[in-house]
Request: fold
Amino acid sequence: MRIWGKVLGAFFGFLLGNVFGLLIGLWIGHRFDTGMGLQTGFRRRPSEAQQTVFFHATFSVMGHIAKASGQVTESEIRVASDLMDRMRLTGELRTRAQDSFRQGKAADFPLRATLAEFREACMGQRDILRFFLEVQLQAAFADGSVPPEERQILEVVAEELGFSRFELDRILAMAEAQRNFFRSQGSTGSRQQGWSGQQARQAPPRDRLKDAYQLLGVNEGDSDQEVKKAYRKEMAKHHPDKLAAKGLPPEMMEMAKQKAQEIQSAWEMIREVRGIR
Reply:
């Protein structure tokens, strides 16, 4: 918490204008402290150096996870290529991303050093670190499940980024539920439409409803208030504007928007089933 702007502002304000000056100085100091806070971590528009660290870590760690169980599969390569497409990486940027993926497959890839550099570059912004971890889970789930070798790598990633085993288990469970939720959506609506209209008037399959709860990190027996709180918490973590303010590179924004839409879709299903208004 930054207070020196308020302290100095109040002090000099009081010298210049007694109590009224103190209040004005306190307000100006608060604005200064707030402005300084917004400058920590990634800036709203990350520098080229920060983007380089972000992209290299994203694709090299993804390559390392893909290689952990031995042979890199077509599904894992497709996940990396799809990510590059969604980030609209072309030309030199795409070549660099592909090179990073290949570097990650090397036996001597410096995983911890790469993650430490990434963590330092984003100044420990927890929402950005979690977003990074969730991106890596896409590679881990590429073949439908997470083998033990890849799980071990994910544990190292989580540890270096400051997440506990318990938190990793929770994020993995939510990611698996998300995957199952949208894998079964083909027959009930498009990924972008959410849960509305005719779709909302039909009772969803129980397994899919269970995945919706898990995607939000709650249980079916939780109260409406608890479910609503969890939904708002997940949206706050993944809201594109918030992530942008913390420095998520513009190329990653489409993924952030999609994640927010997925959370919204799960919430809409639960809300309609429960009759929450």
In short: The longest helix spans residues 4-38.
